[in-house]
Amino acid sequence: MSDDRFDCVIVGAGCAGSVAAYQLASAGMAVLVVERGPFAGAKNMTGGRIYTHSLEKVFPNFRDEAPLQRRITREKISLVAPDSMFTVDFTADGLREGAAESYSVLRGPFDQWLAERAETAGAEFIYGIAVDDLIIRDGKVCGIIADGDEVEARVTILADGANSQLVQKAGLAQGRPQPHQMAVGLKETLELPASVIEDRFSLNPGEGAAWMFAGDCTKGRFGGGFLYTNNDSISFGLVAGIQSAMEGNVPVYQMFEDFKRRLDIAPLIKDATLVEYSGHMVPEGGFAMIPGLYGDGVLVAGDAAMLCMNLGYSVRGMDFAITSGELAAATVAAAVEADDESASRLASYKAQLEDCYVLQDLKRFAKFPHYMESNTRIFNEYPVMVGEMMMNLFAVDGSPERPLKQKMTEPLKRVGLMQLARDAMGGVKAL
Ligand SMILES: Cc1cc2nc3c(=O)[nH]c(=O)nc-3n(C[C@H](O)[C@H](O)[C@H](O)COP(=O)(O)OP(=O)(O)OC[C@H]3O[C@@H](n4cnc5c(N)ncnc54)[C@H](O)[C@@H]3O)c2cc1C
């Protein structure tokens, strides 16, 4: 360092912050990470599955080094009606090998591993202190203010997660996110012996399941349930749209309690020991809510930049956070090298995000959040319709059998064929 400034100060030791710190420290930059939690991962939460393509780019040996749980080889999606549950259950050899690799993870050990990697590379970490404000001179972010102390930096990376106050202070966001753009997630980590998990979820040793639920788990409102199998625990929880939950009369914790008591769910978690309970915000608004990603002396990465995507069958945020952290670090390193931390220099960060899957995926599915939020039939009428179809198909009660076509179309007519066609078309357009 040529003066008493850090080359980079990073706010937050989540996936985005620690990966950026690792990359910068590895490039010989002086970097400081300030994390409000007592250790990395203390305040972080995820449903539990990381798609590892981005991790592999930064840590090619992650399979041997990272505290991963189970490789996901079983994908399940359920439509949940009040009195039935219809499940798609998919396994494939392709999920056991190849590029489409994903693992269940627990954020405590995973984030500590990432932070340790950055520390070993030379990054400094301070824990237990929240960054309250930014040092801004002539419109340029020149560092952070934490616990009354000022720390100067050439570039500051805001990686402070979904509820970032600092993005606004940097002048990169117009107001707070709206309730319809945010969801609240809650999760229990439930311990069970590995052999019980493998028996209950039909898994080979070391293999894992990811299970998404839509419908009555959120009382027919915008949101869904999730379940991931870890080595010897299950990550089980709900995500509920904040606007939608506010309009209903059942609090989110009660939705989850009712869900766990269902006859088709209770056996999955029977005799499990609750070892962790957590809650967290999830940015669900997609492309429309991405703030400014760069300014004079500042970049925004991960959830702070709202880089998160929930498509119902997949939830992604950690891979976006890792790639954005990596690209933010590359941008800072080039700016410091060129002795130019201006917004026009840092603009290449956005261009790099546009050139890769991060902004391309978010842009491609830009209409999806609005489609899901405005089409509540997905969460109430359709699970009931499918449940009735299956009931008509499977129930044999001695009365004369009706033609299969009639059995299937009756529930369909209740929703309305035109309505179904319109919703299907809307879904196709949004996806
Ligand atoms: C219920 C739920 C389920 C999810 N499921 C999945 C999933 O299965 N797969 C997936 O890929 N993604 C999932 N996500 C999204 C994923 O967890 C996030 O996208 C990811 O954690 C973003 O990483 P990040 O580093 O940007 O932010 P975070 O992991 O939130 O880290 C931000 C860090 O900043 C710190 N911080 C905040 N403010 C300050 C401050 N002022 N000063 C100092 N430190 C501060 C925090 O303590 C935290 O350590 C889920 C999220 C939730 C809530």
UniProtKB/TrEMBL annotation:
Residues 368-430 form the FixC-like C-terminal domain. One of its GO terms (molecular function) is oxidoreductase activity. Keywords: FAD, Flavoprotein, Oxidoreductase. Residues 7-56 form the FAD dependent oxidoreductase domain. Its cofactor is FAD. This is FAD-dependent oxidoreductase. It comes from Adlercreutzia mucosicola. InterPro entries: FAD-dep_OxRdtase, FAD/NAD-bd_sf, FixC-like, FixC-like_C. PANTHER family: ELECTRON TRANSFER FLAVOPROTEIN-QUINONE OXIDOREDUCTASE YDIS-RELATED. Belongs to the ETF-QO/FixC family. It comes from the Bacteria. Pfam families: DAO, ETF-QO_FixC_C.
